[in-house]
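Repro case for the chain-ordering regression, as requested:
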Amino acid sequence: MFKDRVVVVTGAASGIGKQTATEFARQAAQVVVADIDERRGAAVVADMRNDGLDAVFVRTDLTSEADCAHLIATATATATFGRLDVLVNNAGIEISTPLHEMSEQEWDRLVDTNLKSMFLCSKHALRHMVGATNGVIVNVCSVSGLVAWPGIAAYNATKGGVMMLTKSLAVDYAPYNIRANCVCPSIIDTPMTDTSIGNDASVKEAKAKLNPIGRLGTPEDVANAILFLASEKSSFITGAALTVDGGYTAI
Ligand SMILES: NC(=O)c1ccc[n+]([C@@H]2O[C@H](COP(=O)([O-])OP(=O)(O)OC[C@H]3O[C@@H](n4cnc5c(N)ncnc54)[C@H](O)[C@@H]3O)[C@@H](O)[C@H]2O)c1
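-- result from build under test --
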């Protein structure tokens, strides 16, 4: 479905990003895996290449404008893939310090990783997409961009920002035939979740019950939604927030 399409996925060394990058490549895209974790990012690309898929790794600290510019420049360089069709802004972190105890440094780290990174990558990607008069951006938001998940106020605030950044991108760049949408997952079974709620089966089971569907989401669930929003099948959809939450926000 994505033959001759070049896709950049951030935070693709793990979890949702890794699954998304792999699925794009399985559907014939040329994929740029971006992550700050050089060891795991390179391993993801090695696995993809072993399976005959087309991917490169670019070590990127997404909180740095120089790194984000380098990422997009590498993807669009003729020596790499020479163009950019899809940007998936996926990387994010969770810090669950209560707001009244949170340091300024923690707040800044969350905002820089979860929100500023999406501005920086979008900014540099748009410079190519506007010239090419097409492109798609998919941002990984969260149900916490829609409703306040208890105990993670700062994280919720960053995802609220992602939501409005997505809508603004959609409105401002529609004239250039550039679409922007976001996905809003509830709890997905990834390394981030293992860190935030632990790997205890009974805790996961309790969290799963928060979703009417009765299970946690998988990285595949989210990757499928991202690929749909990046595909021509969603060509009339822009500025949307697609919940991938087992019904969590329907209650
Ligand atoms: N896991 C969940 O339950 C869940 C739910 C809703 C939304 N999300 C969102 O999904 C996205 C992916 O989460 P995940 O669960 O796959 O997490 P994860 O921890 O498995 O993967 C995140 C990746 O981002 C990378 N990263 C972090 N900071 C970076 C930086 N400064 N520069 C470059 N890379 C950086 C990490 O190295 C890691 O590979 C995040 O935006 C997260 O907020 C996750």
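Ordering looks correct now. The mean pLDDT is 97.
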